[in-house]
Design a protein that fits this description.
The complex is a heterodimer. By secondary structure, chain A is mainly α. Chain A has 9 helices and no strands. Chain A has one domain. Helices cover 39% and strands 25% of the residues of chain B. In chain B, a hairpin with a 2-residue loop joins strand 4 and strand 5. In chain B, helix 4 packs across helix 5, helix 6 packs parallel to helix 7 and helix 7 packs parallel to helix 8. The longest helix of chain B has 18 residues. In chain B, 42% of the residues are buried. Classes of the chains: A mainly alpha, B alpha/beta.
C-alpha cells in the first residue's frame, strides 16, 4: 500500500509547490518595480533567438505534411484537398505542439539550467538578501516573455508551414498553384487560427513555469543542475502533450 | 557575557529549533549578539552554521523558537516585511555569489538600485568608494568569471557593504583560499566592520582567521552551541569537543 501511495503523495506535494509558485508569480506580476529591461531581454532570448529553429521546424513539417497527404489522398482522388489538410493541421495542431516542444528544449532547459546554477551558487539567496524577490526578479519576466512570444512564433510558423506545404505541392508534386492556395483557405476559420494561438500561450506558461520551478528548487551542485535541466524539458514536453489533449477537447 | 548586559542586544535567538525532514540541524539555539561586536561561529562542515546564519536574516524560518533583531521578532513578520527588514543586513556569501550576468560594478550597485532612493551619481560614487575599500577599482568593468576566487569574494564584500548595513554576515569567507589571500580577507573584514561600525557575524572553520577577526567565538556542535568565549579564553577551553576541533585545525588540512 505504501509503495502505491508514496509516489502519488509525492506527486501531489510537488504539484502543490508548483501551484504555490505559480500563484506567487501571478501575485508579483503587477508589483513595482517593473523590470521592462529584463522582460525585453527575455523576449529577445525566447522569441527572436528561437526564430530560425522554429522556422526550420515549420517549413519542413509543412513540407512533409504535403508529401504524406498527397500520397494518401491520391489513393481516393482527393489530391485537391492537400492544401486544406496541410493548413488546418498546421494551424490547429502541429505548429503549436512542435513549436512548443522546440521551445521546451531550447528555452525551458535554459531557464532550468540558469536558475538552477543561480540556486546552487547562492545567487538566488543573494537576491533575496538584497530585498529582490527571486520570483519577481527572475520568474515574472521569463514567464511572461514566453507566454507572449510563443504565440507570436507560432503565428509565424503557421504561415511558414503553409508555405512549405505549398512549395512541396506545387514544385515537387506539380499541383496547380492557384487552386492550391484556394483550398488552403477555403475551409479555414478564424477559430482554427485562434485555438492554435491560445494553446501556444498555455504551452508557453507551462514551459516557462516548469523550467523556472525546476531551477528554483534545484539542490545538489552540478549534478542537481543537470537533473533540473533534464526535468525542465521532459516535464514540459509531457505537460504539453497532456494539456494539448484537454485544450483541444475544450476548444472545439 | 558581562559585556552583553551593558550594551544593546542586536540579535537574540531563543530556543531555535530547525529540522529538514528527519534531520535535526538546530536543536535549541540560544544566542545573544551585542551591537558592534564581532562574533565568529565555528564548527565542522555540515553542522548547520549556514543554516543558523540564514535564520538570522530570515532566509529560513525556525520550526520553533524566536529570532529577534533590534527587538523585532523576525520569524513572525510577513514575507514582505522581512524583505524590507533585510536592508539592515549585508551578507557576503561563501564563493561570492556574484550575479554572473552582471559586471562587477553592476553587482555592487544592485542593492542600491533596488532601494530606489539614490540617484545615479550617488550610486556611482558609492560603488567607486566600495571598490576602493576592497582594492579592486581596476576590476569595475570585469565580469565575475574573469576574477580569481579571492577577488570574487572581495567584490562580494563590496556588494555586502554597499548599502551601509548595520549587520554584516560573512559565510565561510576564507574557505579554499591560500594563506596570504586569507590574511588579506581577514584584514578586510575587520576594516569594513570597523568603518561601518557594524555588528559582524562570521561563520568559519578556520581557527587562524577566527582569532584574527572575532571578539567572541562560539562553537556549534550537534545542533547546539557548546562553547562561547573570547578568542584567548576559547583557545584554553577544556571541553574535549573544542580541543579536538582546535587540534584538527592546527594540522595541515587533509581533504
Amino acid at each position: 500500500m505504501r509503495l502505491l501511495t508514496a509516489p502519488v503523495l509525492h506527486f501531489l506535494e510537488e504539484l502543490g509547490h508548483f501551484l504555490t509558485l505559480l500563484w506567487r508569480m501571478l501575485a508579483w506580476t503587477p508589483r513595482r518595480p517593473w523590470d521592462v529591461h529584463q522582460l525585453v531581454r527575455q523576449m529577445q532570448r525566447v522569441g527572436v533567438a528561437s526564430l530560425p529553429v522554429i522556422l526550420l521546424t515549420a517549413l519542413f513539417t509543412g513540407g512533409v505534411l504535403a508529401l504524406q497527404t498527397f500520397s494518401v489522398l491520391a489513393r481516393f482522388n482527393a489530391e485537391r484537398y492537400v492544401g486544406s489538410l496541410v493548413a488546418l493541421s498546421m494551424v490547429r495542431e502541429l505548429a503549436c505542439v512542435l513549436g512548443g516542444l522546440v521551445i521546451a528544449g531550447r528555452s525551458g532547459s535554459a531557464m532550468g539550467a540558469e536558475l538552477g546554477t543561480m540556486r546552487v551558487t547562492e545567487q538566488i539567496d543573494a537576491l533575496e538578501v538584497m530585498g529582490a524577490d527571486p520570483v519577481h526578479y527572475l520568474m515574472v519576466p521569463r514567464v511572461w516573455a514566453t507566454v507572449v512570444m510563443l504565440p507570436l512564433l507560432i503565428a509565424v510558423s503557421d504561415a511558414v508551414g503553409i508555405f512549405g506545404g505549398y512549395m512541396v505541392s506545387v514544385v515537387l508534386m506539380g499541383a496547380n498553384p492557384v487552386s492550391y492556395m484556394e483550398t488552403t483557405f477555403q475551409y479555414m476559420e478564424l477559430q482554427d487560427l485562434l485555438s492554435g494561438l491560445v494553446k501556444a500561450a498555455v504551452f508557453g506558461l507551462l514551459i516557462a513555469m516548469i523550467g523556472c520551478y525546476q531551477g528554483y528548487t534545484t539542490s545538489g551542485g552540478a549534478e542537481g543542475v543537470g537533473q533540473a535541466t533534464t526535468r525542465s524539458v521532459v516535464l514540459a514536453s509531457i505537460a504539453i502533450f497532456i494539456s494539448n489533449f484537454f485544450l483541444t477537447k475544450a476548444l472545439f | 557575557m558581562a559585556v552583553a548586559e551593558r550594551r544593546k542586544v542586536k540579535i537574540r535567538l531563543q530556543d531555535v529549533h530547525k529540522a529538514f525532514g528527519p534531520k535535526v540541524v538546530l536543536d535549541g539555539i540560544d544566542l545573544e549578539i551585542v551591537e558592534g561586536e564581532s562574533l565568529a561561529i565555528i564548527g565542522g562542515s555540515g553542522t548547520g552554521k549556514s543554516v543558523l546564519l540564514k535564520h538570522m536574516i530570515g532566509l529560513l524560518r525556525p520550526d520553533s523558537g524566536r529570532v529577534e533583531v533590534d527587538g523585532i521578532v523576525i520569524n513572525e513578520l510577513s514575507y514582505r516585511e522581512i524583505a524590507a527588514f533585510r536592508r539592515r543586513f549585508g551578507m557576503a556569501f561563501q564563493e561570492g555569489a556574484l550575479f554572473d550576468s552582471m559586471t562587477v560594478r553592476e553587482n555592487i550597485a544592485f542593492p542600491l538600485t533596488r532601494e530606489r532612493r539614490h540617484s545615479r551619481t550617488e550610486i556611482g560614487r558609492r560603488v567607486a568608494e566600495c571598490l576602493e575599500e576592497v582594492g579592486l577599482t581596476e576590476a569595475a568593468d570585469k565580469m565575475p568569471s574573469e576574477l580569481s576566487g579571492g577577488m570574487r569574494r572581495r567584490v562580494g564584500f563590496a556588494r555586502a557593504v554597499a548599502a551601509k548595513p548595520d549587520i554584516l554576515l560573512f559565510d565561510e569567507p576564507t574557505t579554499g583560499l591560500d594563506p596570504v589571500t586569507k590574511e588579506t580577507i581577514d584584514t578586510l573584514i575587520v576594516e569594513l566592520s570597523e568603518r561601518l561600525g557594524s555588528t559582524t557575524i562570521t561563520i568559519s572553520h578556520d581557527m587562524v582567521s577566527v582569532f584574527r577577526i572575532a571578539d567572541r567565538v562560539a562553537m556549534l556542535f550537534d545542533g547546539k552551541l557548546i562553547a562561547m568565549a573570547p578568542p584567548e579564553e576559547f583557545r584554553r577551553l577544556d571541553d574535549p569537543r573544542v580541543r579536538r576541533f582546535l587540534r584538527a585545525d592546527a594540522q595541515p588540512a587533509t581533504v
